[in-house]
Amino acid sequence: MNSIIHIMGFIFMALGLAFDLFGCLGLLRLPDVYNRLQAATKCVTLGTCSILFGMFLIVGFTSAGMKAILSILFLLLTSPVAAHALARAAHKSGVKLWSGSVIDAYEQDGS
Questions:
Q1: Which of the chain's ends, N or C, has fewer CB atoms near its CB within 10 Å?
Q2: Is 22 exposed, middle or buried (CB count within 10 Å of its CB: 0-12, 13-18, 19+)?
């Protein structure tokens, strides 16, 4: 039973590494700051949380495991808020959207 949990932990860590890799590729390949924030927020948050959860599965309810769970909660609460604040600040400072963007929700709201 213990080895199954370790294998699941390594699977979560590998899955998280893949999501982090795709998030980094999105930061390099996507055309504007808003699309890059999308890649960073979704992929990297999910990837990092998966890595931390995999570590929790491996180490169990130790102090390191509890720190991993607290880090997951912190990441899930702060990452979307930080990305929203960055996108709003970029929009207010006049950073243009990519020419292929379909809609500008901030502009429609008048904020």
A1: N
A2: middle
Q: Which SS3 state, helix, strand or coil, does residue 26 take?
A: helix
| 3-state secondary structure at position 62 | coil
Q: Which long-range contacts (CB under 8 A, 24 or more apart) does 80-83 make?
A: 80/41, 80/45, 83/37, 83/38, 83/40, 83/41
Residue 70: predicted pLDDT: 97
Asked if pLDDT for residue 76 goes beyond 70, the answer is yes
**DSSP assignment string, 73-96:** HHHHHHHHHHHHHHHHHHHHTTPP
Radius of gyration of the chain from its Cα atoms, rounded to whole angstroms: 18
Q: Report pTM.
A: 0.82
Q: What is the dihedral of CA 78, 81, 82, 88, to 10 degrees?
A: 180
